[in-house]
Specification:
By secondary structure, the protein is mainly α. The chain contains 20 helices and two strands. It has a two-stranded antiparallel sheet. Strand 1 and strand 2 form a beta hairpin. The radius of gyration is 39 Å and the shape is elongated.
Length: 448
């Protein structure tokens, strides 16, 4: 529209409405048009979504395992191993690990409570429960070797074995007849000895319904006995420590939880090494308590007579062998000495301190064995703490003069009772003292 030779533009609001109408028209045309689609393309779902929607069917898994083993003789362990390894490439071993090990241990699936799943399915002809009777460790070991090879091929199977399957089997040990119980325990011990299972699985045996009637105590005997056919007692001790099994008394009924009962139980079962290990372990704990209490009383300035009485009271409550007791008393006393920064003063300091606390040692040096044990303790200490290594002969003189050790004990120690630590040095250093004591002894015999 022209007016006076100029072009007149529509106002901005009109332009806005025109733009909106054209935009809406274009969008309606686009939505009406047919959209392209993918023909013959399958969109793959995420693995996590598939697993979440998948049914848990252990009975189907069991039937598939049976299918793989149906034409394999149960006594052909190599063939069984090969078939199981092959099955792992198609079956979900990780998802059904518990079912797999239940089949290998007891021949079928277990329901809560330890009973077999009652669905009419037969038991597998290949399982630990089919091992020979009477139970032979070498025979059970063949079944364990199948599991060993299977776990080494599929390493993810080890965790469910030690964290789920074995604890569940132990939890229902009271459900199994004695012979079957023995086979499971022997197999578990062999698996632990080969590093395929942690000792933490034994914690299930500390439950109240299992410890009564000595069931748990007898089961751990079977586990330990099979373990020790492969490994040493030191190896077993380390395995128990890593597995958090610190108190063997927890496997005994409450009215039998004492060291004497435990010692007799394992010795009667033919496992004296377990009894001795436990005794040494308990002694170590008791010695720590004595040393700790002794240092506390010395720091508090208690009299030597009170210290002696306290140690005697501790001995009455939880006795240590005399040789162990005198050793830990020495350790507690010598550890309380505040050594000088100047090496030339430490020898004199040691002699002065030992002279001072000898009256604490003397009441407990009550025989030749105890006296020789004290000398050996001092020998090892001087060997390890070289600050007073040269003072060893003088320390023996102090202990001799204070009636802590006798001349016979010193002579016996010098002839055949010394420890290997620094032996030649200490024997040579004490040779003059021993010669003097021998001559004195000869003079006394002549006077008689």
């Amino acid at each position: 529209m022209r007016s006076g030779g100029q072009v007149c533009l529509p106002p901005p609001l009109v332009l806005f409405h025109i733009f909106r109408e054209r935009r809406n028209l274009w969008m309606s045309q686009q939505s009406a048009a047919a959209k392209p689609s993918l023909q013959g393309v399958r969109i793959k779902a995420r693995k996590g979504a598939v697993k979440a929607q998948a049914k848990h069917e252990p009975d189907v898994f069991r039937d598939q395992i049976f299918k793989h083993l149906e034409n394999v003789p149960p006594s052909d362990f190599e063939a069984v191993t090969n078939k199981l390894v092959q099955a792992g490439s198609t079956l979900e071993f990780l998802k059904y690990a518990d079912a797999l090990f239940e089949i290998l241990f007891v021949g079928g699936l277990l329901q809560p409570g330890g009973q077999y799943v009652d669905d009419g399915a037969p038991l597998s002809p290949f399982s630990v429960l089919n091992a020979k009777e009477p139970v032979d460790v070498a025979d059970v070991k063949q079944y364990v070797e199948v599991m060993n090879k299977l776990i080494r091929r599929y390493k993810y199977l080890q965790r469910p074995l030690e964290q789920s399957t074995l604890p569940n089997l132990f939890q229902y040990m009271n459900r199994w007849p004695e012979t079957q119980r023995e086979k499971i325990a022997v197999a578990a011990g062999l698996l632990m000895a080969q590093g395929l299972a942690s000792a933490s699985c034994l914690q299930s045996l500390t439950k109240d319904h299992l410890v009564k009637n000595d069931l748990s105590a007898n089961v751990i005997v079977l586990v330990f006995r099979s373990y020790l056919t492969i490994q040493s007692m030191e190896h077993l001790a380390a395995t128990l420590k890593r597995g958090g099994v610190r108190d063997l008394l927890a496997f005994f009924p409450e009215n039998k939880r004492d060291d004497k009962t435990l010692d007799e139980h394992f010795r009667k079962a033919g496992l004296p090494q377990v009894a001795e290990w436990w005794t040494k372990r308990q002694y170590a704990s008791l010695k720590e308590n004595v040393v700790k209490r002794l240092k506390e009383m010395l720091n508090n300035g208690d009299s030597h007579a009170d210290i002696v009485n306290t140690i005697k009271e501790m001995q009455e409550e939880q006795p240590l062998p005399d040789t162990e007791l005198v050793s830990c008393i020495w350790q507690g006393l010598i550890s309380s000495v505040e050594w000088s920064a100047r090496q030339d003063q430490n020898e004199a300091l040691a002699l002065r301190e030992i002279t001072n606390f000898a009256d604490i040692l003397e009441p407990f040096c009550n025989g030749p064995k105890t006296e020789v044990a004290l000398i050996n303790t001092v020998q090892v200490y001087c060997y390890e703490d070289t600050r007073i290594i040269k003072a060893f002969p003088q320390i023996l003189k102090v202990l001799y003069n204070k009636d802590c050790i006798s001349d016979q004990a010193i002579i016996y120690w010098h002839q055949k009772g010394s420890k290997p630590q620094g032996r030649q040095h200490f024997l040579q250093a004490t040779a003059p003292l021993v010669k003097f004591l021998q001559e004195q002894e000869s003079e006394d015999e002549d006077d008689e």
